[in-house]
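Progress note, sequence design subtask.
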């Protein structure tokens, strides 16, 4: 006959040892630290952004290479992001050159439209706008300072 050994199992929980309690406390502390770190990461991701603006030298290099449209776009983007002449005086000359280019493009457009206009009142209005842009060109050229010679290359684009 075989005898059965009935091993008695304890009912309920066994009393925890000191190391078990320490382990549980450590788990809780690490969980809290993890939650705090995730909150910091979320805050950092939410408030992080990088705005690229062109430096005055980069704009001048683009102008020198004859990429006036790109330089004008860079200037508009810089101004929209707070890079104004009042914030940084180094932008004065590149911005003046791009003001000249923009005014000249509008001057040429209005001058050609006035030349093709058949109505005398329309022609007079177009010529008035063209002369306003011509005065803007002269103002921008005077603000370009020692780089005013670069306006000659811009003039070649429109002639």
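Output:
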């Amino acid at each position: 006959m075989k005898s059965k050994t009935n091993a008695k199992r304890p009912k309920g929980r066994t009393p925890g040892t000191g190391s078990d309690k320490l382990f549980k406390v450590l788990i809780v502390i690490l969980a809290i630290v993890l939650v705090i770190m995730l909150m910091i990461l979320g805050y950092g991701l939410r408030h992080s952004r990088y705005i690229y603006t062109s430096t005055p030298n980069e704009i001048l290099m683009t102008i020198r290479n004859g990429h006036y449209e790109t330089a004008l776009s860079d200037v508009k983007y810089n101004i929209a992001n707070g890079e104004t002449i009042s914030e940084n005086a180094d932008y004065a000359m590149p911005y003046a050159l791009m003001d000249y280019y923009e005014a000249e493009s509008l001057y040429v457009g209005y001058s050609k439209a006035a030349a093709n206009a058949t109505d005398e009142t329309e022609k007079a209005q177009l010529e008035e706008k063209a002369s306003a842009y011509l005065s803007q060109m002269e103002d921008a050229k005077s603000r370009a300072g020692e780089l005013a010679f670069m306006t000659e290359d811009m003039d070649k684009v429109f002639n």
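The two ends are 118 Å apart (CA to CA). Work on this subtask will continue into the next period as scheduled.
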